[in-house]
Amino acid sequence: MRPDLNLLTALRVLLEERNVTHAAKRLHVSQPAMSKTLQKLREELNDPLFTRSSHGLIPTPRAKQLEQRLPELLDQISNLVHPKEFAPASYHGRFNIAGPGVILEQLIPDLSITLQEQAPGTSLTISEVTTDFTEQLGSGQLDFVIHINRSMSEDLIKTSVGFGEVVCAMRADHPLAAKEQITLEDYLHYAHVRLYVAQITHANIGVVDEILNQSGRQRNIVLETSSLSAALNVIRRTDCLMVVADNPVELQDSAFVCKTMPLELGYPTLETVIIQHRRSINSQPHLWLRGVMVELMSHFFREERLFRSTALL
Question: Which residues lie in coiled coils (predicted)?
Answer without folding.
Answer: none
